[in-house]
UniProtKB/TrEMBL annotation:
Alphabetical UniProt keywords: Signal
Family matches, as CDD domains: PBP1_ABC_sugar_binding-like
Subcellular location(s) of the protein: Cell envelope
Keyword Signal applies: yes
Primary location class: other
Signal peptide from the UniProt entry: 1-20
Protein name: Fructose transport system substrate-binding protein
Domain Periplasmic binding protein: 38-296
Matches recorded under Gene3D superfamilies: 3.40.50.2300
Similarity comment: Belongs to the bacterial solute-binding protein 2 family.
Domain of life: Bacteria
An MF annotation (GO) of this entry: carbohydrate binding
Organism: Nonomuraea jiangxiensis
Amino acid sequence: MKTKLTAGLLTTTLIVLGVAACGGNGGGGQGASAKPKVGLITKTETNPFFVKMKEGAEQAAEANGLELMSAAGKFDGDNASQITAIENMVAAGVKGLLITPSDTKAIVPAIKKARDAGVLVIALDTPTEPQDATDALFATDNFKAGELIGQYAKAAMAGKPAKIATLDLAPGITVGQLRHDGFLKGFGIQSGDPAVVCSQDTRGDQAKGQTAMENCLQKAPGINLVYTINEPAALGAYTALKAKGREKDVLIVSVDGGCTGTKAVQAGQIAATSQQYPLKMAEDGVKAVATFAQSGQKASGYTDTGVTLITDKAVTGVEAKDTAFGLANCWG
């Protein structure tokens, strides 16, 4: 963010709403800059995943002659701030909005108002409910991401009976449910299977992941496999396991493939992770808004931005890349 929006557009419910005047021109409004505007609204501004997404949006906005406005919630699940951001950006005249919805159902009415006002709305990473509430979706196949680590875990367990803890996201967020369900399918079990001995929500937070793992170990000390929604939750789980001297005999699998998470795979803290590409999501989304601004052509449907299993301990029958590849491509 390089300049502030005019005060009339800023409310106290919005943690951050700023304008990056690509190419160094002007600020908010139609004054010094005649560039079409594109908005990016992420779940938080601190999660490295969304930091990388914003980086991709900034690069693509500059390359495509757009002015970027960005906003984020105070925490994962902060629907109110995202609604305010949509309203402010529409009022500022954006041609398109890119959003990672915190509440995939509750955000839909605000998105409808934006689309009714002629704004192209694209979901990044997380589909709305229903998915067609946005014009388009640029995202990882989150079910496949979960399925890959489930298949890996099944093969890595080598027939050993599993006692599984699932460290999930939070109710009402499609990305969390898709990854969870994909993991179960990949492992070859269904919801309610007795192999899952503990399930806790973490909101993808490392401290909450540690607490969740501590709770699960109290409930079921014999846990030997941990599925986590993302790598911060995985590292929290690892910390809890290490405190109990269990870090060597519990398999942890995760999703994200960020640079920190990939290094954790390299260090043996996480066995495998499904790498996704948030920078590409944002770049593709901004390009779609640029096309709409220039020609009126709207992006539509779902675009899969790719997923790759990353591990240094490959198993038969599950395609994977090693951490050298993962570090070269982390969140690119």
